Amino acid sequence: MIRRLFILMVCCISLNAVNGQLTTEKIKTIPGNYVAVAADNLENIYLLTASNQLKKLNEKGDSVAVYNNVKKLGEASLLDVSNPLRVLLYYRNFATLVMLDRLLNAVNTIDLRAQHIFNAEAVGLSYDGKIWLYDNMENVLKKIDDKGSVLFKTPDFRQLFNDAPAPQQIIDRNKLIYIYDSARGIYIFDYYGTYKGKLAITNWQDLRITDKYIFGNDNNRFYRYTLNTLKFEEWPIPDALKNARQYILGEQTLYVLNNDELSLYSFRL
Length: 269
Prior knowledge:
- By secondary structure, this protein is mainly beta.
- 1% of the residues lie in helices and 51% in strands.
- The chain has 1 helix and 25 strands.
- The chain is globular, with a radius of gyration of 18 Å.
- Residues 1-17 have low confidence and may be disordered.
């Protein structure tokens, strides 16, 4: 049964920047040819290799597990490690989701095409182990179970917004769903599909949301937005760290991925 989506006021927040300098100190370097990195809330590190292996390392950099399914599904387009016990891989070209356990054993595979979902750009783990996705053909947010059956969906976003979002990320955090369209901002919903507002955060890469903060970056700066105080801060990326393949700014650690290594830094703001 489709619940009605009630529109509340839009919270388009004006972001006032607090500028400063970021001082870094290298902790360790992990050599290798990696195309993407992710870190969970236990500081485990997940590295996707150029050959499409997924490697899990603990906070010390020691290997924990490896997932290798290169031939079947090809290149993974999304990695969600927001729940350390359940890792989600999305293969967009095959419209296929693969769920892994904490040791990177495959526990479930979902072919979205079997559920007539052929174009889902953004997917993300739900707090209860289910999966959120945005169906770009129907322009609706859906929640599916481990068989791919649709448990819930919103009305068509084109009927709700003058300029409907085209999300790149879906993040379930703080009992809210954050739908990020880098060109339009972050749309916020509760678990019943009620629209709670919008954050005027655009053009950030590698968006991460914790209990306290929203982190991101562009090519020149790191950003942090404090959820309870609405405080916005930014710091120039140090020249020595510029032009990296990917950055992850966390609460305690900065991860910098280059073509031949991942470097971990402590930092002071």
